[in-house]
Specification:
It comes from Manacus vitellinus. The chain is mostly helical. The chain has one domain: Recoverin, domain 1 (Orthogonal Bundle). It has a two-stranded antiparallel sheet. Helix 1 runs antiparallel to helix 2 and helix 3 crosses helix 7.
């Protein structure tokens, strides 16, 4: 499944483009701009599985670094600071990774 099966290609391009500058990533604004906030829990879970590149059932710190590339190949890598901030926001149980429920909560709070 491709990200464009769930989200509009135009929204993805606009949202990724808005955070093209280093240190500019804001997950709350990004999830809203990309249209994820308006999606059903099932669609949010589909996006989670697309971002979970190694199919572990979690999005680990290494996968978070490439979260924008998960939406489109033109996306930039997040900086270490941005990656750690996103992990801290999403990792509610402190296990160092983001599970499907944590991802859904992260999207919902944006």
């Amino acid at each position: 499944m491709a990200m464009t099966d769930v989200l509009s290609a135009e929204d993805i391009k606009k949202a990724v483009g808005a955070f093209s500058a280093a240190e500019s990533f804001n997950y709350k604004k990004f999830f809203e701009m990309v249209g994820l906030k308006k999606k059903s829990p099932e669609d949010v879970k589909k996006v989670f599985h697309i971002l979970d590149k190694d199919r572990s059932g979690f999005i680990e710190e290494e996968e978070l670094k490439f979260v924008l590339k998960g939406f489109t190949p033109e996306g930039r890598d997040l900086s270490d600071k941005e990656t750690k901030a996103l992990l801290a926001a999403g990792d509610k149980d402190g296990d160092g990774k983001i599970g499907a429920e944590e991802f859904a909560a992260l999207v919902a709070e944006s």
